[in-house]
């Protein structure tokens, strides 16, 4: 039951993303295709801005990864990917057209529980805009399901969707089918490892730095659980049966940086609140555009919300 509750958090993220798209914050022609239910209720302006900043901040780090040594093939692993559309945006959106994202240049792997991955497979194969990106125009035959023991739910050149319970990732090394440990690799975890016990989450990060000689991590997680706002946030989630298991241990930006250092990201570590990302990473003209979309009466609430979520990133081996 707890696993099912965690899986349903993807619906919350998908609904928020679709609201941000429909309100004009984000450009994402695939958000509605991978949202499995009717269009959601429009979110509050501060939630739309938070979703925008979360997405654009991670896009900034992904772009930095792909831009480094552009002639070298790379690999992205998205943990708890759910209904995320980043792969399809990378392959087709004009804003990423200057990046090396062709199948010969980038291998993209997504991982999630089997029910979530199976739903995503069905939605991808139902919508021609998505199948065209994977298999080219005119493809009408659905690919045969791979052998169950491989845990691969859907595969195309440059893209693999895996079913995986992250708690089964072993200590030591981990190379799922199709993953090449010799490639420069970026791992993305958006509110994913936060649901695991601290020891299990730490094991996964240590395994990544052991398996891949050149690896980076991008984490998006809540922080600051000891503030009044943080306590209310944790209480509200707990009422839905959602427990943020690593939050107490990694509740500050310094704790997030130290976490990455201890778990093997020896090349460097950084962490910023979402509010800092909004202030420092979003250009002035883009702030003006976003600010003109909706009246944001809750400026103080936005600043409070923005200090209770962070993006942390670290790297090893260049």
TrEMBL record:
SUPFAM superfamilies: S-adenosyl-L-methionine-dependent methyltransferases (SSF53335). Gene3D superfamilies: Vaccinia Virus protein VP39. Its EC number is 2.1.1.233. This is Leucine carboxyl methyltransferase 1. It catalyses: [phosphatase 2A protein]-C-terminal L-leucine + S-adenosyl-L-methionine = [phosphatase 2A protein]-C-terminal L-leucine methyl ester + S-adenosyl-L-homocysteine. The keyword Transport does not apply. Keywords: Methyltransferase, S-adenosyl-L-methionine, Transferase. Belongs to the methyltransferase superfamily. LCMT family. InterPro entries: LCMT1 (IPR016651), Ppm1/Ppm2/Tcmp (IPR007213), SAM-dependent_MTases_sf (IPR029063). One of its GO terms (biological process) is methylation. Pfam families: LCM (PF04072). GO terms for molecular function: protein C-terminal leucine carboxyl O-methyltransferase activity. It is an enzyme of class 2 (transferase). S-adenosyl-L-methionine binds at residues 54, 80, 165-166, 190.
């Amino acid at each position: 039951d707890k696993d099912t509750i965690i899986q349903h958090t993807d619906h919350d993220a998908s609904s928020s993303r679709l609201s941000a798209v429909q309100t004009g914050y984000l450009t994402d022609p695939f958000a509605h295709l991978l949202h499995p239910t009717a269009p959601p209720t429009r979110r509050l302006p501060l939630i739309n801005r938070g979703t925008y900043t979360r997405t654009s901040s991670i896009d900034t780090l992904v772009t930095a990864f792909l831009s480094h040594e552009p002639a070298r093939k790379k690999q992205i692993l998205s943990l708890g990917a759910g209904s995320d559309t980043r792969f399809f945006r990378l392959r087709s959106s004009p804003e990423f057209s200057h990046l090396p994202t062709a199948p010969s240049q980038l291998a993209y792997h997504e991982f999630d529980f089997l029910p979530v991955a199976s739903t995503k497979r069905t939605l991808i194969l139902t919508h021609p805009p998505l199948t065209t990106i994977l298999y080219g125009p005119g493809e009408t035959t659905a690919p045969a399901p791979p052998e169950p023991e491989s845990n691969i739910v859907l595969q195309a050149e440059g893209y693999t969707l895996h079913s995986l319970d992250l708690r089964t990732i072993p200590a030591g090394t981990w190379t799922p089918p199709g993953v090449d440990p010799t490639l420069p690799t970026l791992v993305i975890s958006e509110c994913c490892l936060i649901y695991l016990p601290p020891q299990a989450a730490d094991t996964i990060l240590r395994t990544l730095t052991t398996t891949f000689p050149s690896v980076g991590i991008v984490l998006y997680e809540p922080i600051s659980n000891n503030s009044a706002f943080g306590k209310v946030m944790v209480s509200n989630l707990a009422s839905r049966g959602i427990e943020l298991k690593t939050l107490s241990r990694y509740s500050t930006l310094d704790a997030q940086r130290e976490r990455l250092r201890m778990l093997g990201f020896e090349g460097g570590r950084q962490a910023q609140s979402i509010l800092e990302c909004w202030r420092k990473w979003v250009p002035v003209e883009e702030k003006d555009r976003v600010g003109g979309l909706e009246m944001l009466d809750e400026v103080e609430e936005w600043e409070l919300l923005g200090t209770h979520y962070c993006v942390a990133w670290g790297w090893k081996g260049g």
